[in-house]
């Protein structure tokens, strides 16, 4: 079930502790235990978990490379998790702060959970300030030590470069 098909039914009165709509964002390429820990932590912060997956094009804009797993497959993987209630593509980059505030608010989200690696980043400092004006909280999830998609990619290259 995609989030976009659910937006029209969202109730804007969602600030009670029993009805906290949380948003987790990410690329989720080469899904690993760090992603799962992040999503579990995010789900524990509220009653509903919305996940925004970065599109292939957005990844290319930010990193000058496409993810290994395409956006449709990454969304299917995230959608299959029982802890996830809604999945959609990120409508606009976080650096477009006002646009970001509008789509997050339109989704009825009142708490954004961001990966700990982004804490104190300029991008998320600005976004958190802007979202606070909409009464949307931002918090940072603890990082899973020694795990990242980039690290996994490097390990694959290192481990298998001789046999290729």
Automatic annotation (TrEMBL):
The keyword Transferase is annotated on this UniProt entry: yes
Molecular function (Gene Ontology), one example: nucleotidyltransferase activity
Keyword annotations: Nucleotidyltransferase, Transferase
A Pfam short name: CTP_transf_like
Keyword Nucleus: no
Every Cytidyltransferase-like domain range: 24-154
Name assigned to this protein: Adenylyltransferase/cytidyltransferase family protein
């Amino acid at each position: 079930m995609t989030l976009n098909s659910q937006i029209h039914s969202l109730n804007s009165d969602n600030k009670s502790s029993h009805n906290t709509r949380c948003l987790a964002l990410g690329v989720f390429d080469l899904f690993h235990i760090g992603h799962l820990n992040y999503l579990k932590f995010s789900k524990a912060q509220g009653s509903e978990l919305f996940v925004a997956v970065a599109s292939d094009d957005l990844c290319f804009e930010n990193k000058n490379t496409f993810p290994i797993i395409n956006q449709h497959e990454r969304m299917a993987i995230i959608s299959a998790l029982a802890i996830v209630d809604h999945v959609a593509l990120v409508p606009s980059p976080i650096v477009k702060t006002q646009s970001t505030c509008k789509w997050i608010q339109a989704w009825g989200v009142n708490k954004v959970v961001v990966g700990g690696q982004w804490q104190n980043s300029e991008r998320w400092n600005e976004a958190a300030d802007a979202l606070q004006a909409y009464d949307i909280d931002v918090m940072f999830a603890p990082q899973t030590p020694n795990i990242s998609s980039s690290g996994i990619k490097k390990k694959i290259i290192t481990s298998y470069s001789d046999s290729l």
